[in-house]
Amino acid sequence: MSHTILLIEDNRLNMELASDVLQAGGYTVLEAMTGDEGIRVAAERLPDLVLLDMRLPDLDGLEVLRRLRSELRTAHVPVVALTAHAMKGDEAAARRAGCAGYITKPINTRTFLAEVGQYLTREERKSGHLQP
Ligand code: MN
Fold first, then answer.
1. 56 CA from centroid of ligand 1 (Å)
2. For residue 100, what is the DSSP state?
3. Cα 9 to averaged position of ligand 1 atoms, centre (Å)
4. How far apart are CA 35 and CA 103, in angstroms?
5. Cα 20 to averaged position of ligand 1 atoms, centre (Å)
6. Distance between CA 10 and CA 31 in Å, rounded?
7. Prediction pTM value
8. Measured in angstroms, how far is the CA atom of residue 98 from the centroid of ligand 1?
9. In angstroms, what is the span from residue 57 Cα to ligand 1's centroid?
10. Tens-place pLDDT, residues 94-122
């Protein structure tokens, strides 16, 4: 069964690139271009992983993360922050707020699938879904 990944990203080009790479890697991709939409889709579809842009037009990425964490249905869905190279402060703030980690943008298309795969594997080990 293929993993489902929710991409919350307001930049259309970043969205298309990440989405294309993930789909080529066999993932089912859900797309949301605002924080509100992302929160709604996460609760409806319970993705295996959320990739969250920390700079969104409506809600701050940290606020999206807090709301996902505070909602019973989505509290345990792992979230990986997408942060721009220049925004180093975002990474520390994202970790403190409960992100599993971060991937810097622009994404490296040669390593992106491996990075995403690591987070999925790590989370599955933690929750016991994956045999060692
Ligand atoms: Mn953005």
1. 5
2. S
3. 6
4. 18
5. 18
6. 10
7. 0.92
8. 19
9. 7
10. 888 889 999 999 999 999 999 999 999 88
